[in-house]
């Protein structure tokens, strides 16, 4: 009796399975956990095949040549693939190999080489790779040095290479040159033209570096470059794809979401979220409005002339495929899925996405039929799968794995597809195949990866900055897919120290009985101050700032602008005071300063008092500021008067370059200075002596800072030599405060010279 029943069951099951398969071909099949892990295993094998090939045949060259099984230098001469692939080892759980290579890199790699390197590629591949690996030290069981995560050998390497590309940022506009010599700075006669992404893709790496090391210069130059681009957008809110860093004039006028521009948009979103900079998200939303208005057609995205908005190229470019991931990050999964669907159709048509695809003709664009193993499509698939869990997305992942396995695998690696029409191969395997493509594929099929942590668990560490929770899932991927744990970055920033102090102060002072009293008296004080301030503002609409720190100035501007937001003023000020201190160097690193630190911390923990002092000074600014400063200048029309303390701005630049140790000292001195400055404010008499010449100079300086552009009073800038000392001088006065009013800060965009683009002219740098 039993046997026939079993047979029936089997038959039923077979029918069910068949139905499932049928349904699956239309609706996306159900993936069991085992299926998913099977594909994860395939990806891991894929990675190791290519990685082992690189190590065996190509290291220490930059890249593997997968057809000839040897190596060659491409972007630098710094074992690019090794550094770029390092954190993928950690994500795949191969900690032993990570440890081996991390030690190798910290011992072997030296960036003091006479080589002209791409500023952009060095940043995203080398700097990003080093920072990410540095932050994964604990996860992978590396031996940690005492200051970690605020110090460590890979962080020092990252800082070293960042300083080597820094001279590129010393331009009149703040936009960086495209090329720099790692030993000698910007080569003489170097072209001033670079692509938009090459200007706007630094914030995540540079911001992370600044907050980990305590030197704000990196974050400042990255922000200045972003603002410079924003300031030269066209009247209809678009950017072109090539720009002259000396003049800010566009040299290629195509606006699109893809190649040449892509990661600029990406960093507006990711940088804006990661560092909490609303300004950048605002910028993105304005660009997005232009995208929707001018270049979006049926969930495709075209290219348009940045000044007129007319379509110039009806092309999908392979790099466009990151866009659905960004939309998903902003919560628009519907639009993201529709667009991804289109892009996937291209993949299915050829088995790969060609570099350019002509949308109306439904064909790969002649001369751009290659597929260099790019990650962008799979990147978007990974983000969208996290957001929707739609199994259709796993189908795409499987498609991609199988296409790569079948058509691009060679004896020692995977090769670029030269032409998607015939799947002929080319002797190149870019480092992003190991840094990005395999990583995103792996993460798609590894639902329990630590990267996907939803914040329900974390690791508590003791650091010089006190207790931190890291590895709680706050990972941001750089544009080269290097994950940065934003919690670790925050852990090292002085903002954390300030927050802790405030918290500690609260605990110390918590007295339930007197709580009501405190509230009452605070309210009264705030009320009085507000009335006072309002009176002052009625008396004159002039507003005066102080000192070289623009922070104060911008804050005042903001306050002046928002008369109706008065209630928030006290709160804002407290916050801004904190902002200024974000970069206070962590004194703990210097053992001899332990004592000083204790005293300081003591003082900080009485922060209520401290902050009140500062607040008072801000409120008294009108009476007191004139006296301290050597110049005062007025910005026409906006009726703002600003005084600049040139003493503060001339802060020792050479020290900054020497070593971290002296940097921290100078930062300490700086913050002490500004404290003293504030104290002096109330004491000095209202006596001002100025010459109109210094006024003019300061005005020029100020406008340069605010606009992100260097405005020279005279026109002898023909012989400009980028110089890191000069850069430090300029950036000393460049604000970190992100709450700016663009309408006040903006210089009018210069008229662009008109040039219509011709097919094939775009992306000559690619
Ligand atoms: C880690 O990577 C190395 C080098 O590719 C490989 O030999 C080793 O088998 C890997 N270990 C694991 C556990 O995957
Ligand atoms: C770097 O570029 C400059 C200018 O093009 C050139 O003179 C120099 O030889 C180059 N250096 C190297 C190492 O290629
Ligand atoms: C977060 O992840 C944990 C473990 O993976 C899970 O138990 C929990 O339900 C998740 N929480 C949310 C809000 O998704
Ligand atoms: C701490 O505060 C006291 C008095 O408020 C002051 O005398 C001392 O110099 C301060 N110490 C530091 C390191 O700022
Ligand atoms: C810091 O200030 C002290 C006293 O003001 C001075 O002696 C010291 O040289 C300064 N250090 C640096 C690095 O400027
Ligand atoms: C500086 O500002 C003060 C106050 O607005 C003004 O009286 C004075 O004339 C200004 N100095 C110069 C040199 O413009
Ligand atoms: C917006 C604004 O206030 N514009 C003024 C700028 O200054 C000129 C000359 O003083 C005025 O004519 C504008 O009205």
UniProtKB/TrEMBL annotation:
| Active-site residue list | 121, 262, 355, 376
Keywords annotated in UniProt: Calcium, Endoplasmic reticulum, Glycoprotein, Glycosidase, Hydrolase, Metal-binding, Signal
What is this enzyme's EC?
A: 3.2.1.-
Biological process, per Gene Ontology: carbohydrate metabolic process; endoplasmic reticulum mannose trimming; positive regulation of retrograde protein transport, ER to cytosol
Q: What class of enzyme is it?
A: hydrolase
A cellular component term from Gene Ontology for this protein is:
membrane
- Where does the record place Polar residues bias? 664-674
Q: Is Hydrolase one of the keywords UniProt gives this record? A: yes
* Annotated signal sequence range: 1-25
Q: Which InterPro entries match?
A: 6hp_glycosidase-like_sf, EDEM1/2/3, Glyco_hydro_47, Seven-hairpin_glycosidases
Binding of Ca(2+): at which residues?
479
Q: Which Pfam families match?
A: Glyco_hydro_47 (PF01532)
Q: Name one GO molecular function term.
A: calcium ion binding
Q: Which Gene3D superfamilies does this entry report, sorted A to Z? A: 1.50.10.10
Where does the record say this protein resides?
Answer: Endoplasmic reticulum
Q: What is its main location?
A: endoplasmic reticulum
* Positions with biased composition (Basic and acidic residues): 578-604, 612-624, 653-663
So what does this one do? Involved in the endoplasmic reticulum-associated degradation (ERAD) pathway that targets misfolded glycoproteins for degradation in an N-glycan-dependent manner. May initiate ERAD by promoting the first mannose trimming step of ERAD substrates, from Man9GlcNAc2 to Man8GlcNAc2. Seems to recognize and bind to exposed hydrophobic regions in target proteins.
Record-given protein name: alpha-1,2-Mannosidase
């Amino acid at each position: 009796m039993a046997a026939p029943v079993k047979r029936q069951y089997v038959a039923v099951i077979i029918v069910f399975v068949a139905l499932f398969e049928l349904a699956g071909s239309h609706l996306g099949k159900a993936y069991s956990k085992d299926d998913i892990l099977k594909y994860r295993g395939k990806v891991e094998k894929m990675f190791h095949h290519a990685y082992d090939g690189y190590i065996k045949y190509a290291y220490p060259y930059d890249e593997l040549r997968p057809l000839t099984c040897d190596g060659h230098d491409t972007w630098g001469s710094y074992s690019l693939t090794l550094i770029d692939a390092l954190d993928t080892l950690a994500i795949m759980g191969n900690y032993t190999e990570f440890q081996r290579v991390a030690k190798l890199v910290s011992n072997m790699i030296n960036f003091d080489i006479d080589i002209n390197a791409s500023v952009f590629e060095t940043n995203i591949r080398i700097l990003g790779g080093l920072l990410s690996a540095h932050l994964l030290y604990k996860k992978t069981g590396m031996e940690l040095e005492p200051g970690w995560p605020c110090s460590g050998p890979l962080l020092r390497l990252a800082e070293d290479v960042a300083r080597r590309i820094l001279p590129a940022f010393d331009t009149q506009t703040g936009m960086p040159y495209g090329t720099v010599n790692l030993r000698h700075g910007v080569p003489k006669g170097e072209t001033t033209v670079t692509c938009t992404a090459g200007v706007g893709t630094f914030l995540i790496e540079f911001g992370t570096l600044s907050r980990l090391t305590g030197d704000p210069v990196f974050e400042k130059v990255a922000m200045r470059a972003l603002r410079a681009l924003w300031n030269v957008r066209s009247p209809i809110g678009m950017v072109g794809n090539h720009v002259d860093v000396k003049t800010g004039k566009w040299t290629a006028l195509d606006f699109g979401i893809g190649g040449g521009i892509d990661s600029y948009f990406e960093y507006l979103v990711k940088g804006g979220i990661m560092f909490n900079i609303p300004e950048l998200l605002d910028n993105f939303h304005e660009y997005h409005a232009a995208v929707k208005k001018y270049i979006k057609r049926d969930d495709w995205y075209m290219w348009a002339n940045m000044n007129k908005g007319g379509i110039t190229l009806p092309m999908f470019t392979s790099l466009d495929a990151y866009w659905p991931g960004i939309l998903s990050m902003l919560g628009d999964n519907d639009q993201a899925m529709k667009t991804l669907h289109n892009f996937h159709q291209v993949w299915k048509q050829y088995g790969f996405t060609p570099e350019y695809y002509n949308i109306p003709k439904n064909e790969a664009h002649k001369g751009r039929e290659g597929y260099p193993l790019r990650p962008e499509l799979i990147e978007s698939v990974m983000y969208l799968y996290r957001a929707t869990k739609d199994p259709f997305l796993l189908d795409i992942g499987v498609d991609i794995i199988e296409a790569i396995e079948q058509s691009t695998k060679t004896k020692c690696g995977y090769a670029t597809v030269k032409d998607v029409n015939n799947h002929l191969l080319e002797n190149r395997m870019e480092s992003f195949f190991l840094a990005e493509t395999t990583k995103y594929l792996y993460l798609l099929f590894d639902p329990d990866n630590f990267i996907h942590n939803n914040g329900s668990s974390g690791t508590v560490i003791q650091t010089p900055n006190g207790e931190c929770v890291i590895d709680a899932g706050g990972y941001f991927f750089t544009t080269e897919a290097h994950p940065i744990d934003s919690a670790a970055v925050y852990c090292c920033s002085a903002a954390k120290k300030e927050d802790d102090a405030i918290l500690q102060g609260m605990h110390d002072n918590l007295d339930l009985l007197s709580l009501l009293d405190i509230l009452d008296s605070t309210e009264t004080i705030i009320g009085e101050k507000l009335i006072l301030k309002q009176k002052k503002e009625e008396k004159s609409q002039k507003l005066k700032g102080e000192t070289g720190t623009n922070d104060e100035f911008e804050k005042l501007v903001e306050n002046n602008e928002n008369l109706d937001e008065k209630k928030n003023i006290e709160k804002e000020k407290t916050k801004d005071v904190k902002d200024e201190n974000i970069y206070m160097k962590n004194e703990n690193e210097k053992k001899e300063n332990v004592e000083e630190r204790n005293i300081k911390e003591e003082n900080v923990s009485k922060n209520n008092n401290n902050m009140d002092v500062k607040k008072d000074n801000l409120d008294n600014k009108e009476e007191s500021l004139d006296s301290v400063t050597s110049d005062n200048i007025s910005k026409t029309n906006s009726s703002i008067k600003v005084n600049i303390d040139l003493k503060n701005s001339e802060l020792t630049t050479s020290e900054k370059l020497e070593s971290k140790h002296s940097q921290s000292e100078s930062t300490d001195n700086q913050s002490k200075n500004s404290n003293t400055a504030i104290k002096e404010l109330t004491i000095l008499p209202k006596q001002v002596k100025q010459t109109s010449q210094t006024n003019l100079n300061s005005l020029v300086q100020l406008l340069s800072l605010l606009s992100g552009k260097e405005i020279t009073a005279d026109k002898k800038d023909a012989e400009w030599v980028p110089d890191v000392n000069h850069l430090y001088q300029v950036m000393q006065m460049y604000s970190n405060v992100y709450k700016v009013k663009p309408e006040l800060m903006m210089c009018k965009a210069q008229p662009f010279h008109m040039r219509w683009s011709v097919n094939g002219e775009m992306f000559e740098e690619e």
